[in-house]
C-alpha cells in the first residue's frame, strides 16, 4: 500500500535539495499526491506513482542540463577574458617583434647600494632570448642563452656552457627568468580573481598558475589596469606558496611606439629593505634570425 504523501517522500529520499529545479518539481509531486489520494484505487495509484517517479526523474535531469551548459559557457568566457587581459599586458611590457633593450639593475640593502649590473637583452617572442653582461667591465663577455625553457650561461674562461634554471638568482632580487622570459603568456594559466580599486583606478587582479615547474615562479598575483592594460603590480610565490617578492611597474614612457614601464622595483618579501631597481632604455626593434639563438653564434655577437 502506498500511504498518503508517499510520492513526495520517495522524491525527497532520492534527490538532493541542491539539484537544479528541485523545488519547482517537488510542488508538482505534492499536487499529484493529493490528486491520487482522491481519485485513484490503491493498486492503480501504486502503478501510476512508479511511472510518475520515473517521469519526474527524467524531468529533473533534463532541467539540469541547460544550467550545467550555462556554467561551462561562463567558465570558458572567464578563461578567455583572463587570457586576453594577460596578453594585452604582455604587449605593453615588450614588443611582439624581435627587439633589443638595455637594462641596468641597482640593488640596495637598507637604503644603501650594494651592487650594480648592466645588461643588453635581445629577445624574440617568449622562447628565444640572449642576455649579455655589459657592466661591470670585469664581467663582460658573460652571456645567457635561452631556448624554450632551456637556459645556459657562457663564461669567457670556460669552454662549455653551464646549465641554469630560470628561477636562479641573476643579481639582487632579479632571477634569470625575470630578464630571459619576456612575457607571462605561455608560462602561466591565468584566472581572473576580482576587480580592485586602487587610488581611484580599477584593476583586474589575475592569478597566474605555472604550467610546469620549469618556469620562473610557481604562482603570480598580477594587477593590470582596466582602462589601458598597463601592468601595475605583481606578487611572486614559491612552490610552497610563500611570497618571495613583489614588483611595481613604474615610469611609463614611449618606447617602440607604445607607453611601456621603464622602471621596475623588485622588493624582497623575506628580507625587509632589500630591493633591486631595473631601468629599461634604448629599446629598438631588431631582425633576430634563428641562427643568433645558437651556441655557435654567440661569439659573433657584438
List key phrases describing it.
302 residues, alpha+beta, outer membrane lipoprotein receptor (LolB), chain A, two-stranded antiparallel sheet
Mean pLDDT: 83
CATH architecture of the largest domain: Clam
CATH class placement of the largest domain = Mainly Beta
Number of domains: 2
Measured by DSSP, the beta-strand proportion falls in 35-45%
State the separation between the terminal residues, measured CA to CA.
95 Å
How many strands, what sense, and barrel or not for the largest sheet? 13 strands, antiparallel
Q: Measured on Cα atoms, how large is the radius of gyration? A: 30 Å
Descriptive account of the structure:
It is a single chain. The chain has 302 residues and is of the alpha+beta class. Helix content is 28%, strand content 40%. It has 4 helices and 15 strands. The longest helix is centred in the first third of the chain and has 52 residues, at 42-93. The termini are far apart.
Task: Give a short overview.
By secondary structure, the protein is α+β, with helices and mostly antiparallel strands. The chain has helices at 6-14, 22-39, 42-93, 176-180, and strands at residues 99-109, 112-124, 128-135, 143-147, 150-154, 162-164, 169-171, 174-175, 188-198, 201-210, 219-225, 231-237, 243-255, 258-268, 274-285. Strands 6-5-4-3-2-1-15-14-13-12-11-10-9 form a 13-stranded antiparallel beta sheet. Strands 7-8 form a two-stranded antiparallel ribbon.
